[in-house]
Design brief:
Layout lengths: L3 H8 L9 H13 L1 H12 L14 H6 L7 H13 L10 H8 L23
Helix pairs in contact: 2-3
């Protein structure tokens, strides 16, 4: 499992793989030739197992990465990975009970209250 300090050493503290022209050209071709490499990168971040066939449509990797990276923060990627690994919709886990206590006043991050979402707003929640 990736923890925040390890990920920040590898990816930095701000932008997670910011988009460049070179990456937009190279990634689709690279993933078409070696889908396992693309899966390995995603699994390194999210903590999934590359062998988990249910998580991926391997024929779609070139399409996925043709729009990737489109830019986000390292913390956003870590938060997404936490949600995938835990199967929950909860706030960011700071990695220790003490850090979560400082942020949330409880040892683990609270779940998002999905019942407070306005039912008239159309939202797609994908996992």
């Amino acid at each position: 499992m990736w923890h925040r300090p390890e990920a920040e050493v590898i990816f930095g503290e701000r932008a997670f793989l910011p988009s460049t022209d070179a990456l937009r050209r190279l990634l689709p071709a690279a993933c078409a030739r070696s889908p396992w490499a693309c899966e390995s990168v995603v699994c390194m971040v999210t903590g999934c197992e590359p062998s988990d066939q249910a998580l991926y449509n391997r024929t779609r990797w070139p399409v996925y990465v043709s729009h990737y990276p489109s830019g986000t923060s390292v913390r956003n990627m870590l938060h997404w990975g936490q949600s995938v690994r835990k199967g929950t919709m909860s706030m960011y886990d700071y990695g220790s009970e003490a850090a979560n206590m400082d942020e949330y006043g409880q040892p683990s991050p609270p779940a998002y209250n999905l019942s407070s979402i306005d039912p008239t707003v159309r939202i797609a929640m994908l996992r």
